[in-house]
């Protein structure tokens, strides 16, 4: 039996010679809700295998940016391509195919309350990748839960998990389909400093293990320091600075320093 | 502020338009393939089996009270023997289906509205959508079909239990054999009594599931909206039950009498 088209797409990892290729290209993107302009002329390129952290205050438009990347919101103006394809012009089927290649970790992990951790993991395998082989499903679920340190919680309900465990489970559910791009929406919000650090290190470990390209939206400096290859600072709907964590931290600009 | 400036009629029109789009989405996903059988069976159990006790108790009391209330009037007219027939026609045609549907609107539509509303607030629906799965097919199609399938069955059970309640009420004051009572009941009910009543319960079930799903799926962000979704689902579903009842009765009167 050959693999389905979606399965093939999700399991094909980028070859090494593609490293450096731009996978997310954002140019001059604007987005408003009514009178309120949220994104004002955003420009950003994310290369394959890169971890880009977007720092910014609440309401500065960070989450709107990644929602545009995944096609949940459509920009009013500008150019936004993922894997070279224009997201805004995709039809429903194309968007669904794109989303099988992108993982999105929500702020609250968004675990399905009515399902156990195992069923949460199985959901994208059976519904998105359409895998029917029980042995393969069990193996993938056990492997991904072991890799995030949740092997013992496999039959627990989400309500029985702590905040950190929920984040780990959410991350595992996203990684189980082997996405090429990972989008993290404030992955450490609401966690104590020690757990936040653990999650940040886990993000970095998973990025190395699964060779993903990531955009991490956060205002947690520890998370940015641990995970970032490159940091972009967002202020009032615009990117105002870009560089490594240390470069920006040691900047002389008063506004940039206020973020650290 | 901007929301307050929109006139009520425009909001109503906009919501009606949204409901038509949601209905279109439901039918498109219904015939798309990849039906979620396991979730459908689970919903049938949650919606049907778990509502059985409540529907049964309510129907039993309604049958009992109706018999107790009807008896003095029929005795005044010397028509006490008509009691089983009157009870049967009232329960099968109107009271059984409508009371069952109202109970289901309160229990099921609010449950679905609150469940999907809380899934929306906690981004679970967005997570399904963004992962490439189909939340309409998994959450909406299964629930609407489960209510469409289970509410008629619950109404049938409600009818039978209501008639049993009536039989017990009659036997409080008189002694009537069970065989005679049910013979008279069944004899009083014709095809034209049963079929329109059964058909309307299918529409009731659809309306309960559809409105519950629509309200929950389209709830706003914030925990307050979960309560609002549940509440508005009950109100709208109850209202639709009476509207559907009126329409089906009119149509069946034209076609059958």
Give the topology.
The complex is a heterodimer of chains A (260) and B (257).
Chain A: H1 5-11, E1 22-33, E2 36-47, E3 51-56, H2 62-69, E4 77-82, E5 85-86, H3 92-99, E6 102-105, H4 117-127, H5 134-147, H6 163-175, E7 181-185, H7 193-210, E8 213-218, H8 221-227, E9 230-235, E10 238-243, H9 245-249, H10 254-257
Parallel strand pairs in A: 3-8, 3-9, 6-7, 7-8
Antiparallel strand pairs in A: 1-2, 1-4, 4-5, 9-10
Chain B: H1 2-5, H2 8-30, H3 37-47, H4 52-76, H5 83-121, H6 124-130, H7 135-173, H8 178-188, H9 191-217, H10 224-256
Helix pairs in contact in B: 2-7, 3-7, 4-5, 4-7, 5-7, 5-8, 5-9, 5-10, 7-9, 9-10
How would you describe this protein?
The complex is a heterodimer of chains A (260) and B (257). Chain A has helices at residues 5-11, 62-69, 92-99, 117-127, 134-147, 163-175, 193-210, 221-227, 245-249, 254-257, and strands at 22-33, 36-47, 51-56, 77-82, 85-86, 102-105, 181-185, 213-218, 230-235, 238-243. Chain A is of the alpha/beta class and 260 residues long. In chain A, strand 7 (181-185), helix 7 and strand 8 form a beta-alpha-beta unit. In chain A, helix 4 (117-127) runs parallel beside helix 6 (163-175) and helix 7 (193-210) packs parallel to helix 8 (221-227). The radius of gyration of chain A is 18 Å and the shape is globular. Chain B has helices at 2-5, 8-30, 37-47, 52-76, 83-121, 124-130, 135-173, 178-188, 191-217, 224-256. In chain B, helix 2 (8-30) crosses helix 7 (135-173), helix 5 (83-121) crosses helix 8 and helix 5 runs antiparallel to helix 10 (224-256). Chain B has one domain (35-256). Chain B is mainly α and 257 residues long. The A-B interface holds A 6, 34, 70, 72, 96-97, 99-100, 102-104, 106-108, 110-113, 123-124, 127-128, 174, 177 and B 2, 118-119, 122-124, 126-134, 138.
**DSSP strand (E) fraction of chain A?**
25-35%
Largest sheet of chain B: none
Largest sheet: number of strands, sense, barrel closure of chain A: 6 strands, mixed
Order of helices and strands of chain B: HHHHHHHHHH
Oligomerization state:
heterodimer
Q: What's the level 1 CATH class of the domain at 19-110 and 180-257 in chain A?
A: Alpha Beta
> Rounded to an integer, what's the Rg of chain A over CA atoms?
18 Å
Uncertain segments of chain B? none
The mean pLDDT of chain A is: 86
Give the total of beta strands of chain A. 10
SSE pattern of chain A, N- to C-terminal: HEEEHEEHEHHHEHEHEEHH
